[in-house]
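@channel sequence for tomorrow's demo:
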Amino acid sequence: MTLVPQMPEKVQYLLNYSFPLVIKLCEKTLSERFIGGRKGYDQETLFGWLLIKKVTNWDYRTIASMAGVSHPTLIRANNLFLEKHVYEKVLVSLVKSAYKKGLITGKYVAMDSSFVHTFSKRGELESEGWNEFKEGYGFKLHLLIDTQTKFPLALCITNRLAADCTLAIALLKKARHWLRNCGYVLADKGYDWGDLVNWIVKKLNAKAGIPIKKITRSKTWDWEASARYFKLKGEL
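structure tokens (generated this afternoon):
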């Protein structure tokens, strides 16, 4: 019996995709160029293999074996791309291209946050200590996406203590160029904040699809003020 392996669909897609921008972003200056020695690996090819590593979560040695290079070569290439912010710039370029072609309309956008554990599983710079709820050290990833294409429009990484609603306006401002035709901003009740709803309505001329938080009622609960507040938020 002969086993014929088949690559996952997302890997096949990346293998047929080119990233000419990477060559431009990694171009060396005259002072950085080295005359002599063997020719280095193609940065565009290494970038493609590193993307495959990220979407599959395979280890460096597996990817290096598939690419025909040593795993330290991939590690050095990854460090270079991080240093020159190549990943972010390629993503921005893809978003711009999709927006120009009409794939991203920004009519429906959604935001949320997710806890990300530190790579070392220990406390790292700005991780702000142990998270009891998540039982680990980590950071908080805040993301705004276009719901129709699933393209990320804005990204922010903070410590685990940052409340979701406090980063919402910053995310929307960061992606405002793509939100000219925004109709709805969707989020969970963690983003139920009056200033945010007002900003969405007045600055984006859009509607906020955000559930209203359940509030614990005390003996001095003002029903009339509460009714006005909920009515106002419902109108917005």
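heads up for whoever presents: The chain has nine helices and six strands.
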